[in-house]
């Protein structure tokens, strides 16, 4: 278990947090809700584990809140054992600046820029998974240089130059968007899906060049782009009809220190009629039978074996043919979770892992590794869940542990 006097600092950023709250309301979106509940949970876990936890904003640390803000951030971090990032940051350059500042204070930061890049940038993980034959949608990556992006305000440039490049790369990768074989497009760092994946579906190269322009244009300067990922549009197994898009059979797995710790059904119940008769069928379709859970865990272990990130998530969806496919990876610190109960085991595991790293920071540059039974103390998790009065009902079919043998 964790050292009794672990002091950790959670770094969060004012700007993306404010934007999330504005866009979705404080509890409208899992990431936003999570920031709130972490504040509520950490002291309790901290109290039982005797962990000293402080929060500092990224803006303070990066001197955007004046000398006093910086001095305060510095003072807190210098007296801590480890720094963790909490919530979204949209640019790799911000992670790099944080790492540089924190290193000056001689304190390790769990979420190093490299650590994050492995899972935030599809051009990095797609190849790593592909080499191991881990199932993913067939993908063609179209990189965009800063010079390309500087010019991409011009629709003409985008259509002609980038469109031409897209066409060549797609032909090489043997992906030809047609009505019967449409493609899905997103940037290397994120999609624009939100609520409707069907809006990001193209049926021809002309359509693709025209529509993908919008998502590049929208993100420019605010978020990293890296390039455009064009993927085969998969027919996913639908388990519930919902207004904007069906709910698919899709799960998110949290991996800490190389260990798949927890899985959660990807979607919340906002659009589900929990009193209706279809709800029982839906629950049955989502619940993982023991054999499926084992195979999901094996898939996650395979991914963890090739992705050297210390804290990340794997999103897996099942196709209509019931085949699991890795859709996306992402940094754990900004991954939303639809069922609140999961936040307790994940946070406990994270704090225990942070203690393991703080005890020997050079572990951060080695392959992530820890004995699974050192990550979670189930009794402690149960106690926090009870203390906070969090519902256990989702455990019936929507989420659960993956770290047991
Ligand atoms: N190739 C694809 N075919 C069909 N649906 C997809 C495909 N890729 C992603 N999706 C759907 O769109 C959602 C968002 O895409 P994803 O690549 O995970 O981007 P992000 O998480 O950044 O929004 C996924 O959760 C999945 O439901
Ligand atoms: Mg995703």
Task: Describe the SSE topology.
Elements: E1 7-12, H1 14-24, H2 30-49, E2 52-57, H3 58-61, H4 66-78, E3 82-85, H5 92-104, H6 113-120, H7 122-131, E4 139-143, H8 146-151, H9 155-172, E5 183-187, E6 201-202, H10 205-219, E7 227-232, E8 238-240, E9 247-248, E10 250-256, E11 259-265, H11 278-286, H12 290-306, E12 311-318, E13 324-331, H13 343-359, H14 378-388, E14 399-401
Parallel strand pairs: 1-2, 1-3
Antiparallel strand pairs: 4-7, 5-6, 5-7, 8-9, 10-11, 10-12, 11-14, 12-13
Helix pairs in contact: 2-13, 2-14, 9-10
The chain binds adenosine-5'-diphosphate (ADP) and magnesium ion.
Magnesium ion binds at residues 315, 328.
Question: What features would you describe in this structure?
Answer:
By secondary structure, the protein is α+β, with helices and mostly antiparallel strands. The protein has three domains: 7-111, Rossmann fold; 138-232; 238-401, D-amino Acid Aminotransferase, Chain A, domain 1 (2-Layer Sandwich). Helix content is 42%, strand content 18%. It has helices at residues 14-24, 30-49, 58-61, 66-78, 92-104, 113-120, 122-131, 146-151, 155-172, 205-219, 278-286, 290-306, 343-359, 378-388, and strands spanning 7-12, 52-57, 82-85, 139-143, 183-187, 201-202, 227-232, 238-240, 247-248, 250-256, 259-265, 311-318, 324-331, 399-401. Helix 2 (30-49) crosses helix 14. The chain starts with 6 loop residues before the first strand and ends with a strand. It binds adenosine-5'-diphosphate and magnesium ion. Residues 137, 184, 186, 190-191, 193, 197, 231-234, 236, 248, 250, 315, 317, 327-328 line the site of adenosine-5'-diphosphate. Magnesium ion is lined by residues 315, 328.
